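Progress note, sequence design subtask.
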């Protein structure tokens, strides 16, 4: 029996399916393969357009096979393989178009570089009859599984407030493909928070947002700082505040998500952002109000973190759905398109600007 009272790990498939990787870059190295090793998922081979990179990954993770092309990977894949696609957003559609009809695919976020690309990806998934999910793995971080368990048991009561606050110094140079893109911070980072909030509150009615670059990093013109209000009417209040240019040492860095409800609250430090990709320790704190007693915050020990354990959950949920072990696929492309629509609205709001002040 778990030493902790709350659920904090994803449900694994009874019969894991073989995994074929398309794209063997940084995130596969840092998170996908370490997670699959923990979960016992077999990666049977992979393909990357960068043959040297592919060779390094094969040696490091003892991949049984390297394929010389996408066609080669598809030809060698068994019928029940799950394709694990981790390439820049713009490359996703071309890969999906080639997959055999009826295949299962897990696609790294974002679902294309804008809503139009997301709609095209959704259309291809339907045309090819793919069972496809987007890798919005924050939903399966152990600290989020625990928070969801506490919230779904009703211990916080109705949610009144959700806030993400990230004030860190992010090493954007790790993702050179982001530099020329017009959309970066919300599309590639805050999208995790937008998606997570949707998984608790549903799709918002509207969005207010402003996203901007930083004078010290003008080459990242797609923005490194964002403010997003997801509008759920009178309740809950929801906002996402990120500043990736806090270059003033570790002392005042912040990275947390906070849930407040009528009967209690949870605040989780997501340490990964604070020294990415090594990270600082997470911290899970919660308080349950009891009558007139003074609120008393508790800490909950959580096993595992966002990297790599959360990546078990997205792959496990797809395998379980394909196997018929689960009735729903939480991050299915049909759901993820709503996260992309929310992101699109955030960029539209940012471009539109605020309300001009009346003349005085
Ligand atoms: N927490 C997260 O979910 C998370 C974190 C980091 C990156 N990502 C996402 O993962 C994706 C990849 O990011 P990364 O950090 O690994 O980048 P990366 O640049 O390190 O790796 C991308 C890899 O894809 C390969 N590639 C590009 N086009 C290809 C194609 N058509 N076929 C096969 N291989 C191809 C490249 O050669 C490269 O090795 C991005 O979309 C990014 O948004 C997600």
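Output:
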């Amino acid at each position: 029996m778990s030493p902790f009272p709350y659920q904090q790990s994803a449900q694994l498939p009874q019969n894991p399916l073989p995994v074929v990787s398309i794209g063997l870059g940084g995130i596969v190295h840092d998170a996908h393969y370490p997670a699959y090793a923990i979960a016992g998922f077999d990666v049977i081979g992979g393909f990357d357009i960068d043959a040297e990179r592919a060779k390094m990954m094969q040696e490091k993770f003892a991949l049984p096979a390297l394929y010389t092309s996408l066609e080669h990977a598809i030809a060698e894949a068994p019928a029940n393989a799950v394709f694990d696609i981790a390439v820049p957003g713009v490359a996703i559609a071309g890969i999906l178009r080639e997959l055999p009809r009826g295949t299962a695919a897990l696609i790294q976020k974002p679902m294309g570089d804008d809503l139009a690309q997301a709609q095209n990806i959704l259309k291809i998934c339907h045309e090819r009859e793919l069972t496809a999910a987007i890798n919005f793995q924050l939903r399966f971080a152990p600290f989020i599984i625990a928070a969801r368990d506490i919230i779904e048991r009703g211990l916080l009561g109705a949610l009144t407030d959700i806030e993400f606050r990230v004030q860190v110094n992010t090493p954007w140079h790790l993702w050179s493909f982001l530099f020329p893109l017009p959309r970066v911070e919300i599309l590639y980072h805050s999208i995790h928070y937008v998606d997570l909030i949707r998984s608790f509150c549903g799709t918002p009615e509207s969005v207010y947002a402003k996203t901007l670059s930083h004078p010290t990093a003008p080459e990242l013109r797609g923005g490194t700082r964002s403010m997003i209000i997801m509008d759920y009417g009178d309740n809950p209040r929801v906002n996402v505040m990120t500043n990736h240019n806090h270059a003033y040492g570790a002392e005042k860095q912040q990275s947390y998500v906070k849930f407040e409800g009528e009967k209690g609250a949870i605040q989780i430090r997501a340490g990964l952002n604070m020294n990415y990709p090594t990270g600082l320790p997470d911290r899970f704190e919660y308080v349950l109000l009891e009558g007139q007693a003074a609120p008393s915050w508790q800490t909950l020990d959580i096993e595992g973190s966002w990297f790599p354990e959360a990546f078990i959950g997205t792959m496990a949920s797809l395998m379980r759905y394909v196997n018929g072990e689960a009735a729903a696929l939480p991050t299915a492309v049909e759901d993820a398109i709503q996260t992309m629509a929310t992101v699109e609205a955030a960029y539209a709001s940012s471009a539109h600007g605020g309300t001009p002040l009346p003349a005085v």
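The first strand starts at residue 19 and ends at 22. Work on this subtask will continue into the next period as scheduled.
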